[in-house]
Amino acid sequence: MTALSEKTLDGLVGSAPRGADLTVPTYDRSGLTTGIVHLGVGGFHRAHQAMYLDRLMADGKARDWAICGVGVLPGDARMRDALAAQDGLYTLVLKHPDGTLRARVIGSITEYLLAPDDPEAVLEKMASPAVRIVSLTVTEGGYNIHHVTGEFDLTDPGVAADLADGAVPATTFGLVTEALRRRRDRGVPPFTVMSCDNIQGNGEVARRAFTTFARAKDADLADWIEADVAFPSSMVDRITPVTTDADRAMVAERFGIDDAWPVVAEPFEQWALEDTFPTGRPPFEDAGVQVVSDVEPYELMKLRLLNASHQALCYVGYLAGHRYAHEVAGQDVFARFLRGYMDREGTPTLEPVPGIDLDAYKATLVERFANPHVADTLARLCAESSDRIPKWLLPVVRHHLEHGGPIEHAALVVASWARYDEGVDEAGEPIEIVDRLADRLHQAALAQRDDPLAFLRDREVFGDLVDDERFTAAYAAALASLHERGARATVEDLVARTGGQSAR
Ligand SMILES: NC(=O)c1ccc[n+]([C@@H]2O[C@H](COP(=O)([O-])OP(=O)(O)OC[C@H]3O[C@@H](n4cnc5c(N)ncnc54)[C@H](O)[C@@H]3O)[C@@H](O)[C@H]2O)c1
Ligand SMILES: O=P(O)(O)OC[C@@H](O)[C@@H](O)[C@H](O)[C@H](O)CO
Predict the structure, then answer these.
(1) Which CATH entry fits the domain spanning 2-281: 3.40.630.30, 3.40.50.720, 1.20.120.80, 3.40.190.10?
(2) Which is the closest atom of ligand 1 to the Cα of 198?
(3) How far, CA to CA in Å, does 347 sit from each of 198, 377, 474, 500?
């Protein structure tokens, strides 16, 4: 087994076990220039954007678009250490439905800085003229936008600290706006801010977050950002589960690589990106990115079909005793439930999507969820639900409440989340609720045996949904059924009632 580093790179393929499907960068990494700073280097960025850049570099392109990763949170010290020991290299393993494993060592991340270690180094890196894109995967909650009002929350303690006079920036907002200020003051054109998080209108959301923060700090700077900084929206897609020790062992055994933090993912990849990059961009289209003028149809399709369906399967599946997405999606009744949600509720809210056959797309989604080798955990999908349900599912509900459309599937999804947040599954096993609002949601869920709408009364999460009698009737019926008959029987009933067709 070979420890992964620039020095060992050339010998990796030769020393890999026979039959290993492994490729490594053969381009000269030492001559690359950093053109992108990426905040939030987790599994997804490494399976997606960094992979596209590596692909371009392998074709002799994008040599001035190497990535400097940045960790904003102290917890990113683990990523700092893993990447530092490996010269920024890591193994991306794609897990095909037939069990085939294909590995590629990715070389496009050439630097990594942890903001809490050295904020000044991060600021100067972002301020450097060679950097023309600052991209982000800081999670849905990372934009600090209130679900109901859509406003940036200036009272967040981290934000408030960064707004104080003379503060050393610590948040995404403080860091990015201070770097922009330095560029403006030095006469350097601004970088483009490229959000790659699963949020509808992620570019606009990023624009609102950064300009609101800047306005509270320095109105002239906010004006400059509003006028001169581009915030392209994007739709990004590749299911990337959390890396496990079993993945590390697999990379060692199957590819002969000792990698502290490989990343595993499904083979599917998609990236639709709005083409607004005034100071330039890599030739993304040459790597398979769909560079489009309007990304919204792609975003809505993905968030309301894929991501909302993830929520549709995770709580009922977990309550019924499953722990992996494929265990749920692989069963006919749950697959029909997913298709029922997609066909009856998700799809009617969508406009046609250029170049996409929605029926084929939905069938592919169920197949992707059912890929057993990806082993995506339901726990990952259940986490931070208060940041996901309001962004992906509630817009679908609101659309149908306004237009008299169906809401039964979505009402069951929300009720299953409420039942999940009671903190115990149907076999009596405790559930660890991972959510920034966990305590509050758990308390509300505990009250719902006596007060069925207790969970829905959280107006920060649900807005005025609790005032809609059609929704509350469907929701309360679903919750009662979950309590009395369990998740599987409740899903079976709904599928039977709504004539759910075969999902495949
Ligand atoms: N994993 C996937 O399948 C997938 C697919 C498409 C899009 N995405 C998007 O990427 C995001 C990250 O997913 P991941 O799988 O890489 O997760 P991850 O947990 O591996 O990485 C998340 C990164 O975001 C950082 N972060 C979290 N909250 C932050 C905050 N408030 N401020 C600054 N940084 C913060 C973390 O420190 C970490 O570096 C998702 O939330 C989603 O929007 C993920
Ligand atoms: O990572 P999140 O929080 O945006 O959402 C959980 C999953 O739905 C998501 O990660 C999907 O796997 C991904 O969006 C597929 O491209």
Answers:
(1) 3.40.50.720
(2) 43
(3) 18, 26, 20, 15
